[in-house]
User: Which sequence fits this backbone?
């Protein structure tokens, strides 16, 4: 990898949900002056801690985290907003002489930062969104996706029909701008020297960990968390409440399904999400250095980052405190 002389270092750690990205980031903080910039589209919401597997207050004491708890569940939050805040956080980390560690499994968030997507700044239209969500509820997700395919085939190809939030956003941009969102998006690479680290494990082991994590979430109070969100006035129809776990527990609380059925649905949909993540973080991506965390790879990951920071092209941009990471 060759970086421009003006590039500043950015380490991205990606991989499927439940693979252990947070745990790895915490261990890295014991060896390197890192700060975490979250790339998780659900952890931006306040009051949604258990179901999003948000780092605990104790874990946030160990290493500074950015872009957690920045909007309420009923507030609109766009990709453009996330990208702007992420770049500001990365710059802030650099100013303190630390290493920004972009951590998360939301592929579009990671892509927006690492590739510098030029995202159309279209303000949300609450009335239009309400209409589109109502149509999705009445006619089904596929009907809304078919309309997107007619208006913007390129965007429809990239967006899963089940991801209603992204389908609605693409339609919203088209109706507001009169142009497909795919035609409005280009890329301007950011001024960073980027190291991409991927964490992986066998699909069988990952599914086992997903099941165990769900059991821990339930024991920690996931049901009460969803109930308390509703008591605060956040309706089940909010996009924030459509995330894994929240939608299914909501169905249980409304008496539509049993708890056993809700748990089964969460596991099934999480496994589906893992398969979708594999499309964003491909095993054959030459830019990602993959590490199988079922093996003791932590020393290898630390060495990988140390070697990356030793390159003159990045090292010249580091504050003195970072130049002694060896």
Assistant:
């Amino acid at each position: 990898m060759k970086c421009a002389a003006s590039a500043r270092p950015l380490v991205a750690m990606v991989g499927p949900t439940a693979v252990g990205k947070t745990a790895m980031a915490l261990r890295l903080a014991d060896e390197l002056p890192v700060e975490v910039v979250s790339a998780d589209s659900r952890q931006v919401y306040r009051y949604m801690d258990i179901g999003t597997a948000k780092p605990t207050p104790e874990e946030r004491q160990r290493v500074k985290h950015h872009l957690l708890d920045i909007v309420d569940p009923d507030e609109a939050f766009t990709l453009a907003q996330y990208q702007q805040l992420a770049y500001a956080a990365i710059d802030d980390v650099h100013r303190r002489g630390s290493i920004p560690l972009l951590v998360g499994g939301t592929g579009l968030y990671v892509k927006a930062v690492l590739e510098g997507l030029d995202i159309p700044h279209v303000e949300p239209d609450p009335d239009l969104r309400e209409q589109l969500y109502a149509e999705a509820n009445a006619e089904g997700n596929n009907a809304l996706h078919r309309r997107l395919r007619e208006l913007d085939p390129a965007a429809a190809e990239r967006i899963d029909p089940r991801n209603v939030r992204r389908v609605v956003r693409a339609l919203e941009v088209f109706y507001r701008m009169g142009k497909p969102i795919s035609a409005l998006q280009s890329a301007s690479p950011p001024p960073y020297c980027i190291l991409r680290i991927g964490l992986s494990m066998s699909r069988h082991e990952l599914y086992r960990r997903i099941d165990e994590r769900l059991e821990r979430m339930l024991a920690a109070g996931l049901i009460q968390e969803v109930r308390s969100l509703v008591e605060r006035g956040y309706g089940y129809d909010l996009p924030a409440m459509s995330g894994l776990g929240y939608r299914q527990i909501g169905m249980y609380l409304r008496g539509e399904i049993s708890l056993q059925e809700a748990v089964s649905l969460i596991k099934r949909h999480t496994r589906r999400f893992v398969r979708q993540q594999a499309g964003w973080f491909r095993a054959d991506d030459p830019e990602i250095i993959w590490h199988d965390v079922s093996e003791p790879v932590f020393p290898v990951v630390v060495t990988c980052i140390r070697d990356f920071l030793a390159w003159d092209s990045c090292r010249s941009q580091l504050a003195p405190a970072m130049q002694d990471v060896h």
About this structure: The beta strands are 8-14, 34-38, 65-66, 99-103, 117-118, 186-187, 192-200, 288-292. The longest strand covers residues 192-200. Residues 312-324 have pLDDT under 50 and may be disordered.
